[in-house]
Amino acid sequence: MTIYDIALFKAPPDDSNENDKYATFLRDKGHNVELIPVIQFNFINQQDLHSGLSKVDEYDGIVFTSVRSVQAVHGIQNNQQYLAKKKIYVVGETTEAAVRNKLNLESEGSHCGSAESLA
Description:
4 strands; alpha/beta; two-stranded parallel ribbon
């Protein structure tokens, strides 16, 4: 089998402790892989998010549509205890795992797979 040197241009995994599944797959096949990040993500509107989270008692539930949304809430300190009193809904299994691992919360809806299905 021919071994290739591969440059993989993509965003790295959301969790820095997680291995990229594509890079892992290629390495398992014996190839040399260099993951080259092509985008950088920065959170904006953190003040608006903090303001919204400070009014969490006004909401009946919270919907997380992506891992990034979970990361943004995780970055706002001292709000997880308020969220624990709310119904938490997620779109997809990856988002469910992020809510569980980053916010230490249980959620519903991961099996729906999309926002349209969740509605």
